Amino acid sequence: MELVRLSVDDIDSIKELFVSVFTGPPWYDDWSDEEQLDAYIMDLIGCFNSLALGYKDENGLQAIALGRTKHWYKKTELFIDELCVRTKLQGQGIGKKFLEEVEEYLKGQDIHGIFLLTERNMPAYNFYKKMGFEEESESVAFSKRF
After folding, report:
1. For 115-135, what is each residue's pLDDT tens digit?
2. Measured between alpha carbons, how far is 62 from 85 in angstroms, rounded to an integer?
């Protein structure tokens, strides 16, 4: 596998991987609205501060980390909005290796941290804890739907 920086030119392979992972268990997200999917992925990869990284092999894109850089008082960090590994490759250490290579890449770009959100009842929660991520005890996520 090779770590690569992704761009809007990779949107089709990003969408294919994203949909294949997040429409299945345990998420079951409904991404059938193609226009909404295109807009969401472009929100993640099409901005001036977007940073999209992927793990590719001879079969194509196998993992993605989609986010944006933030210049914070504690130094620049990557806010990851979406991270996933192709479902059939999960549990084989690919995610661990991918995230380790992402961290090394970020260090080389003078980015000194990763911030992300996940749900406690999802498998990703335990994965991130094993990878050395710590819960932000003072942070609270708020949402308002209307």
Report:
1. 999 999 998 999 999 999 999
2. 6
Contacts of 87-91 with C-beta under 8 Å, sequence gap 24+, read 87/20, 87/21, 87/24, 89/62, 89/63
Asked if 19 and 38 count as a contact pair (C-beta separation under 8 A), the reply is no
Q: pTM of whole model > 0.85?
A: yes
Residues 72-96 as b/e (b if ≥16 CB within 10 A, e otherwise) read eeeeebbbbbbbbbbeebeeeebbe
Interatomic CA distance for residues 88 and 80, integer angstroms: 22
Give the integer Cα–Cα distance in Å for 92 and 110.
30
Contact 93, 131 (CB under 8 A): no
The span from the CA of 42 to the CA of 67, in Å, is 11
Residue type, 79: F
Both tokens of 27, joined, read 């998420």
Sign of the C-alpha dihedral computed for residues 30, 31, 33 and 37 taken in this order? positive
The predicted-structure confidence for 92-104, as pLDDT tens digits, reads as follows 999 999 999 999 9
Domains and CATH numbers, the chain: 2-127 (3.40.630.30)
